[in-house]
Amino acid sequence: MRKIITVLSLLAVLVPASAQSLGFLLLSGDAATSAMAGIGTATASSAYAPDVNMAAAALSQGKMDVGAGYTLWSPSFSKNSIISAAGYFKAGKKLAIGADFKLFNIPAYDITTAEGRVTGTYSPKEMALGVGVSYEIVKGLAAGVHVKFASSSMADNAKGSAFGADITLQYQNNGLRAGLAADNLGSKVKYGDNAYSMPMRLRAGASYTIVGITAAAEAQMVSGAFMGAIGAQYNLKDILFVRAGYHLGSDKAPLPSYLSLGLGAKFAGVHIDVCYITANQALANSLAVSLGYAF
Known about the structure:
This protein is mainly beta. The protein has one domain: Outer membrane protein transport protein (OMPP1/FadL/TodX) (Porin, Beta Barrel). The protein contains four helices and 18 strands. A hairpin with a 5-residue loop joins strand 4 (109-112) and strand 5 (118-122). The protein starts with a helix and ends with a strand.
């Protein structure tokens, strides 16, 4: 019990005090998405479409996009890290298939006896592996399904796993994009006799692009708590990208309010993106980097 309490205190910044687990599923490994405060329902497809919005992949003009990323999450508070990889390819003009992987590393903690004697250490980890498919139903409108297996290892006697699914829609017409998503629908995670739900999330967002400038907004409901985000991106000749976003949280929401900033570059199909999070004591100095290739 002491081990579990210790780990839950480390995750307090990520998951509210309720019967939930696998809060890392709310975080994207994509630095470009993170730089726009996590907005993903109504943005253009990226390598991380399977994790962010699988429907967007079917609307992509490219044939393939793959990427990998590393995130230092809340380094000033809990020093968590995320290792991720994702990608999709178009199997024809309307069909897209993708896959993704995400590993959430939590700092090791001491294992102690009832008398307080340290007998060892334990390194908690959580992992998710998913596959997705999307299809353009009619011109400009696509639907996607992303299924995932997620596991959680908080202690030797506190391990569990679950299966879940994300259902997504996206509409595109010239510079306008709109999207809907229902995430983490599925089974509960059992730690012994206790069962915890995945953080079910409903998202709705819209974006508009004109003369290289994209403005986007998204509203979310996570297990009854509201979150919102606004973001913007400036695209200079499809080579350089400047991004910023603001995420609105609350005391009941899984994520607090924060400001995100980011830069990106693309050349000969290779793209690199960086995100920095600030304006929040718990999440200050969080840094994400992702690298990918698209054609």
